[in-house]
From TrEMBL:
Superkingdom classification of source: Archaea
Similarity annotation: Belongs to the nucleobase:cation symporter-2 (NCS2) (TC 2.A.40) family. Azg-like subfamily.
The name this protein goes by in its record: Xanthine/uracil/vitamin C permease
Transmembrane segments: 24-50, 62-81, 88-108, 114-132, 144-161, 181-200, 207-228, 262-286, 306-328, 340-360, 367-385, 405-425
Gene Ontology CC: plasma membrane
Pfam families reported in the protein's UniProt record: Xan_ur_permease
Membrane topology term: Multi-pass membrane protein
Amino acid sequence: MGTGERLRSYFAVEREGSDLRTEAIAGITTFLAMSYIILVNPVILAEAIAIEGYSTVDVQQMIAIATILSAFVATLVMAVYARRPFALAPGMGLNAFFAFTVVLGLGIPWQTALAAVFVEGLIFIAITAVGARKYVIELFPEPVKFSVGAGIGIFLLFIGLQEMQLVVADESTLVALGDIAASPVAGLGVLGLAVTFVLWARGIKGAIVIGIVATTLFGWALTFAGVFERGVVTPETLASPQYDITPLAGAFLDGLGNVDPLTFVLVVFTFFFVDFFDTAGTLIGVSQFGGFLDEEGDLPEIEKPLMADAIGTTVGAMLGTSTVTTYIESSTGVEEGGRTGLTALVVAGLFLIALVAVPLIAAIPAYASYIALVVVGIIMLQGVLDVDWNDPAWAVSGGLTITVMPLTYSIANGLAAGIVAYPVIKSAVGDAEEVRPGQWLLAAALVGYFYVQTSGMLL
């Protein structure tokens, strides 16, 4: 039996209605959509992590390697153990919380912050192993489960439009239309989007990859032709990797000593809640998009991808990076036809290759990569069709889930808002008996989460 046949058999590719080529394209698409984390995560974490005797650039390179290795390990577990087409890496938002709130805001040593992430990972492994994490996710109200995909879609769309400078900050209205005609990045982004949408509408396989690569090549062609200087529509410099991460890896062990118990517990609590609901929302949303959910809106054997997430977080802390989570960009690969763990295996392999190809990855401008988010974000809006908008409990719970995600820049906040609203509205319309006791407890816990997040306790 050849390698291709073994892969088809192990991942049940044909049973899932896919093939090796489609899975490979899906993996490449997902990787291209999320590869920005290799560059962005080090920049954010290096604001908080300083290592004596090493420059900021050196530290950034160490974090880049830790980012790649943690993504590789977590996604490999997802591929081989969970056999799902989801990819993982250090999460955006969680890295900013790590750097700016925990380390710079609270003054907690970065080693201690890594220790908090490590403890969070161990807790996740334990509760996933006994099925508690699966039980909590299955308590999510149906309107939340069926609206989370559309919420993530708008979130993806919003992120992509910002990165492409099509939507910009505004003092009066918070957001506004960017200066598209005057911005080379926005202009190329619109052009890339147009090409990608046309290819997708025509049913061209790999449309998103083609759009990203074509936009990148066009940007570099304009740079080499002298139309733009380096740094305008292409990266100004191409970094080379720093492979010695010994000053960073294992630093969490130093952070386990001399901690203030109350502060440490609060930090672990916040990491735990944000990661828990971020991952749950992503898994459910991408699974809904890919048609993986059962009739109750649950993902069969969800404990397996949850375990991959838990292991990734633990390994990431040991290597020296913030919380690892399942990526919403996985939906780009699912859109390209990825249905099995083979897609994740391709992503894991590309992360490993990235250890020697960081300069090539760095050559892809961020605005080109984010084309994938805009395209998939629009496609995921179809999830609103699964919500019963005539039912008050569904309308309020689903509506909050969808809108709070992009408006607060957090999948976790959107899920929490929808979960808290559901039992309240159900009771208001006289259907309190339909609310499970566990859903009330979950709602109460999330009210506590919102209090901790918004009361200034972490500042």
